[in-house]
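Can't paste images in this forum, so I'm doing it all in text. The chain is below; anyone willing to post the predicted structure tokens underneath?
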Amino acid sequence: MRTAQFALATLVIAGSVSAASAGLTFSFADPAGPGQLTNTGGLLSYNSSAVLSFNIDGTTEPNAFSVSFVNAGLELSLTLSNATAVFPGLLKADIAGTFRFFNRDVNGGVGAAATILEGTAPGGAFVNIGATGSVLSDFQFFGLTLSAGQQLQNLLLPGRFIAPPFDSVFTVTDIVPLPVTIVNGTISNFTANTSFSGTANVIPTPGSVALLALGGLVTARRRR
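Text version of the structure:
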């Protein structure tokens, strides 16, 4: 009987995670004004005073939502290294660093309470073709982690949190000056515009799953 109860608890856990798992998508479009993204000496940064409309699509959540933070900003610090010419006209470099989206309507965007989403990218790639490019990272290949700030956590039901798989893509456009070259092993200085898209899974916290499993065990005992 205990074996049957354990099996039932396992099914409760698996079923609850499967049923409750969902996905969030994040995005912002290129804001007005040129050159918010800057590469200087292999350090890629973003003008944190630029105003973004940061969008979160949570329509697959139990409490479906779609929210735009219309007074958002971005802090970004990514190093570019080990640049190579894959073939003429296509350059690639390794990336590593962090980024943070924030709501400047809360504490002027400063601190944990104003944070929407944070990313840590121990690895990734910058790929350039002409005046365009991409900054790519994900969980599976590069170990990208995304963390929900208080602004995002407020949108999720209690007992839910974001989890892998994660991915992020900064699409880079209007790069100047051209051509982009390799200087001392990294990408030459430039300014550009950028937009963003990313995804994260959403699952119950371990404590919530444990409570569901306990409920399954109690139900099994009552049926004896």
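DSSP finds four helices and 14 strands in the chain. Residues 25-204 form one domain.
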